[in-house]
Amino acid sequence: MSDLSPTSAPPVFEGVRHELKRRETTVASVSRLTPHMIRIVVAGKALADFASPAPDDHVKILVPGPGGEPVMREYTPRAFDPAARTLTLDFAVHEAGPATAWALSARPGDPLTVGGPRGSRVLRSPVARWLLIGDETALPAIARRIEALPQAAEVETLVAVPGPADEQVFAGAARVTSRWLHRPAAQATDPGPFLAALADFAPRPDGFVWIAAEAQAARALRAHLLARGQPQAWMKAAGYWVAGKADASVKEIAD
Fold first, then answer.
1. Rounded to the nearest 5°, which phi and psi values hold at 141?
2. For residue 7, what pLDDT is reported?
3. Domain with 146 in it
4. 79: which strand partners?
């Protein structure tokens, strides 16, 4: 991805399928990354053949439900260390659902079953400029994308979090400009703050827009940017969660 010269051709993404399996892991460490983000690192021999080649991959975790029965929830692998066989997962702390409850009570030594990823959407061509838009649930994927980009890439991020203490620093070689929107977690379904911040949006040559937030909010953002002239082939929008529905997501929002 070192050649970032302008091109009219849209970026090429390749779908990669993985053998679907469940892996039994153990919590190695728990830390409070920000007031509304918990980082949990799990480890285990079962991770020996784990693969997550795309920044916006997802795995399923099995946690106890309200009645004690296991339920599945979807998370982005924040990092994977194949040598140490450790997988890092970041949990956004919002509504008191099963995954949040598990993360809040997790301690080293606790078991966690991890399934997937089922597949990856891997970028196979260079992109010169990125606009990464999301709420707190998108932060792991945004951070991974930035870490994977070369020095020549330009990245702008627009992320909504509850407050200044929830902002994160993105590491990597790319040139990054970060904008943060502060709003209560209870207002995470409202696209208004994003739309206001993007009121003067204008597409840039070789600029790819990636959006991940609550499904209806992401849909509204996609529609706004299309209306502002962003080419559909140079944008992906996903609903990382759906308000009022447990374990629901929209992998790719389309017309």
1. -70, -40
2. 52
3. 120-241
4. 88
**What amino acid occupies position 69?**
E
Looking at the fold, whether 183 and 228 belong to one and the same domain comes out as yes
Residue found under tokens 């993007």? 198
Q: Are 34 and 140 in contact (CB under 8 A)?
A: no
Q: Of 118, 149, 171, which residue constitutes the final position of a domain?
A: 118
Distance of alpha carbon 33 from its chain centroid, rounded? Answer: 16
CATH of the domain at 76: 2.40.30.10
pTM flag (> 0.90): yes
pLDDT at 43: 98
7 within some domain: no
The DSSP-derived string for 189-205 is T--HHHHHHTTT----T
Rounded to an integer, the average pLDDT of 168-184 is: 96
Closest C-alpha to 134, from 188, 211, 221, 193? 211
Are residues 89 and 47 part of one domain? yes
Q: Could you report the per-residue pLDDT of 80-94, keeping only the tens digit for each?
A: 999 999 999 999 997
pLDDT digits (tens, 9 = 90+) for 7-59: 568 999 999 999 999 999 999 999 999 999 999 999 999 999 999 999 999 99
What is the per-residue pLDDT for 3? 40
Q: List, in sequence order, every residue forming a beta bridge with 16; answer none if it has no partner.
A: 120
Number of domains in the chain: 2
Q: What is the mean pLDDT of the chain?
A: 94
CATH number at residue 155: 3.40.50.80
Residues 36 and 82 in one domain: yes
